[in-house]
Amino acid sequence: MIRIGDLEIPDFPLLLAPMEDVSDPPFRALCKQYGADLMYTEFISSEGLIRDAAKSRAKLDIFEYERPVGIQIFGSEIGSMRQAAAITEEAQPDIIDINYGCPVKKVACRGAGAGILQDIPKMVSMTKEIVDTCTLPVTVKTRLGWDDQSKHIVEVAERLQDVGIQAISIHGRTRAQMYKGEADWSLIAAVKNNPRMHIPVFGNGDIDSPQKAVEYKKRYGVDGIMIGRASIGAPWIFREIKHYIKTGEVLPPPDMDERVAAARQHFEKSIEWKGDRLGVVEMRRHYANYFKGLRDFKSHRLDLVTLDAPDDIRSKLDEIAALSWEVAP
Hints:
15 helices, Non-ribosomal Peptide Synthetase Peptidyl Carrier Protein, Chain A, alpha/beta, TIM Barrel, globular, about 325 residues
């Protein structure tokens, strides 16, 4: 077993990455069913929590069937992050995670997310304040550094461990890279192989198949893998990786019935959690992924992203399920 504080999760766990507008309760429910061992919420603004903003507060919603689950917070002010951590702890997650990895301009250029990688002493001080505030385990998700000249992740991880974090997830790119190029897992391995490190080290970046997950497991020796973009519209990737690790066999891709069932469940839970209007609109980004690779699907996808009434979307999913489909070459 892997231990994060007092929390135990299976050996070589598969983690669902925190993704804005993706890893909400409806999507997390699917990922849990397909085998995710530990999931994180969308990242939540510390300032939003302190101001009691409705959108930020809604992201604190977690459910018993999701456990273990971590809530991730971000911000640039130490005092605000400390307050936000205390508010987050009241929601009773299993873990509180700090976002030091988000590369988007509106976050990073305000000194939050990956922006704090330009000020490592502040990053360490903020982390210590949050650890000291919380009774729950605190974890961190970060990147290799701000740019190619500042890839100090080995030292940074050690310093964060020294102030009390219980696990670290590392995306194998710098902030400057955003999501371009290939993730460099050699530096993630260097953190894991640092003899001073004793907390779990999870790797993140570019894992998009069972074969790659096993290859990186063997090559880099990380304690587990965090999966982000590859799970969007494909929550079954967790099942596929686990099956391949166990048997060496590649599962066949999900058939049309399973794709429609997953999209339908995601849609219904979105309506239930967000209400009809928001549930309909926010599902639109997912349909292309659920039905990726299908020949002549364009007109159906257009319907899914333009229909406004929940019953019309339900009828459209029924229609899609009744048709015969082939995967484009």
